[in-house]
Amino acid sequence: MKKIGDFFIRIGKDLSFTFHAISLDLDKYLELDPSVSKKWMVILSSSGFHALFLYRIAHLFWKWGLRLPSLLIYVWSKILTASDIHPAAQIEAGIVIDHGIGTVIGSTATVGSGTLIYHGVTLGAKRPVKGKRHPDVGKGVLLGAGAKILGPITIGDNVVIGANAVVLDDIPNGALVVGIPGKILNKKEIKLCC
Questions:
Q1: How far apart (Å, rounded) are the C-alpha atoms in residues 71 and 4?
Q2: Beta-bridge partners for 148
Q3: Domain range list for the chain
Q4: Which of 43, 111, 173, 181 could pair with 91 in a Cys bridge, judged by C-beta atoms 3.0 to 4.6 Å apart?
Q5: What value, to the nearest 5°, has the Cα angle with vertex 143 and ends 43 and 171?
Q6: What is the CATH code for 2-186?
C-alpha cells in the first residue's frame, strides 16, 4: 500500500513541477521577448513556446517510462512547430525559444534556466555514438540564430554565442563566442560601434 501512495505522490510532484516550469517559461518570455506583453500573446502566437510546452509534456511521459505517448507528442511537436526537442533532454524551467523554427535539442543535452535560444539553434552531436553526445548549456546563456553547439561539451553560465557560430569546445562562464569554429573574443576585440 505504501508503494502505491509513494507512486501517486511522485506523480503529483512531477505534474506540479511540470506546470510550474511552464509558468516560469511564460514569465521568462515576458522578460526576454519584447514583442509580447501578455502571457496570452505567448500562448496564442509563439511556436517556440508551443515547442517548449509540448516538450515538457513529452518529457513528463518519458520520465514515467511511457515511451510511446512521449514519442507521439514528440513527433507531433516536430510537425506542428518545426522544432525538434527530444523528450529525454533535460531543460530547466524558465527558458525562451524565440521563434523556434529549426531548433534542435538532442536527447542527452541539458539547458540551464534563463537561457534564450533563437531560431535555427542546434544542440547536437558530432558523431553517432551511444551515451553522452550533446552539450550541457549553463544558466543565462544567449544562443544566437543558427548557432551550432556540437558534442558533449560544456557551455558556462552567462555565455553569449553569436549567430551562426559553430562551437566544438568547452566555453567558460561569461564568454562571448563567434565564428566558425567558435572563437572566444576578449574585450579588446569587441567593437560595439563603427
A1: 26
A2: 122, 166
A3: 2-186
A4: 111
A5: 145
A6: 2.160.10.10
The DSSP 8-state label assigned to residue 189 in this structure reads G
Q: CB–CB of 78/59 below 8 Å?
A: no
Tens of pLDDT, residues 79-135 = 999 999 999 999 999 999 998 899 999 999 999 999 999 999 999 999 888 999 999
pTM (predicted TM-score): 0.88
Give dist(CA 67, CA 47) in Å, integer.
24
- Half-sphere exposure of residue 171: CA atoms within 13 angstroms, side-chain side: 34
Q: Which positions ≥6 away from 174 have C-beta within 8 Å?
A: 156, 157, 158, 159
On whether the CB atoms of residues 157 and 174 are closer than 8 A, the answer is yes
Which residues make Cβ contacts (< 8 Å) with residue 138, sequence separation at least 6?
Answer: 112, 115, 154, 155, 156, 157, 158, 159, 173
* Residue written as grid cell 506546470: 19
Q: Residue 65, exposed/middle/buried by CB under 10 A (0-12, 13-18, 19+)?
A: exposed
Buried residues in 103-124 as b, exposed as e (16+ CB within 10 A): bbbbebbbbbbbbbbbbbbbbb
pLDDT digits (tens, 9 = 90+) for 55-90: 999 999 999 999 999 999 999 999 999 999 999 999
**Ramachandran assignment for 120, one of left (phi > 0), alpha (psi -120 to 50 degrees), beta (any other):** left
Count of other CB atoms within 10 angstroms of residue 138: 21
